[in-house]
Amino acid sequence: MNRQNMEELNRLGWGRYQLAMQPNLVKSDHVGRVTAESKRYYFLSDGKNEYLAEVSGKLLHRTTGLEDFPAVGDWVLFQTPESKDRAAIHRILPRHTTLKRRAVRSTEEAQVIAANLDSVFIIYSVDENFKSGKLDRFLAIVHESGAIPVVVLSKADLMLENREAVYREVLAMTSGVSIVMLSAKTGEGVDSLLRHLEPGSTCCMIGPSGAGKSTLLNFLAGSEVAKTADVREFDMKGRHTTTKRELFVLKNGQILIDTPGIREVGLVVGDNALSSVFPDVAAIAKHCRFRNCTHHHEPGCAVLAAISSGELDPGKVARYLKLKAEVMEREDGNPKDKRIAKKRHAKRIHKAFRKSSGKK
Ligand SMILES: Nc1nc2c(ncn2[C@@H]2O[C@H](COP(=O)(O)OP(=O)(O)OP(=O)(O)O)[C@@H](O)[C@H]2O)c(=O)[nH]1
Ligand SMILES: [Zn+2]
Known about the structure:
This protein is of the alpha/beta class. The protein has twelve helices and 15 strands. The chain has three domains: about 5-90, CATH 2.40.50.140; about 100-260, P-loop containing nucleotide triphosphate hydrolases (Rossmann fold); about 270-330, Probable gtpase engc, domain 3 (Ribonucleotide Reductase Protein R1, domain 1), CATH 1.10.40. Helix content is about 35%, strand content about 25%. Strand 8 (about 120-125), helix 4 and strand 9 (about 150-155) form a beta-alpha-beta unit. Helix 4 packs across helix 8 (about 270-275). The longest helix is centred in the last third of the chain and has 22 residues, at about 335-355. The protein starts with a helix and ends with a helix. It binds guanosine-5'-triphosphate and zinc ion.
């Protein structure tokens, strides 16, 4: 990679990535970062130019599932064989962190939401109907990703009365995670939030639809970026498609990724992530007499004892057990689901090949 390329890439957060991963590159490598994705088309930036890209046939051939396709935030190597602003991605550089969830309508496959993140803002609006449902799930996928979670309680201007109660409820649910109460209307809390956004670092916003992600992005970017500059129409091999840019560079050099609202947060997490969401329950569960204790009825169950003594909240234990059951179910895996996932992937590759060779 040449020197100029590197300086321009630093604007997109390359410095941090390079420090963490020390990728092995040669001078002729052309590096870019994925800024948007739509139906197997990608927008890339190398800090200077933007490219519309597809994965190369070679890369396509090496994929074994959705996770092997580029995602927003990925650092990739690409070539521009056809014209100046068209590109083929031939390698995805190893991901430093990977935020993923179970693909919709799949019990098996993981789908990458965004890659190479330093932190993730989990955005929840605290209007009158505040419900903390799914917060555990969002926390679990962020802990699993390796990025640092920050819970952002948005639209604080709409919640004047029950603030303390909501804050305490969220505090009880989030061990060791920073919570910021914020309003993009009044600017309250924005300074606290910015402390979690270092220049050169990459942060992704996730949360339910309508939580205020795009509004916050616009506020931080100081303009209407999320609504205007992001919708791009392009035309590749005679086809038209529209996509939404998701990766933005803010004024002070932070990189912020906006994602569409998530309705279902299917878990693809391991035990460690679960222990990070529920550290108190996990620590006590270590003292159960049986290693495979289900904490329902076993003698010598430390979790049940802690509930009796008032040390653990039964509601919290119930939430823990619910997620734990889901994690175990996935780990055990259903061979039929695995077969279906494989078949679906083979179909996907076949379709992509037909598309790139112009067949219908
Ligand atoms: N009062 C108030 N309203 C807000 C605030 N932030 C966002 N809103 C409103 O909430 C609605 C949803 O905000 P968006 O920013 O579009 O939410 P989003 O999370 O990007 O939604 P999706 O793109 O569907 O995921 C809009 O009508 C905003 O005007 C806030 O801080 N205060
Ligand atoms: Zn137990």
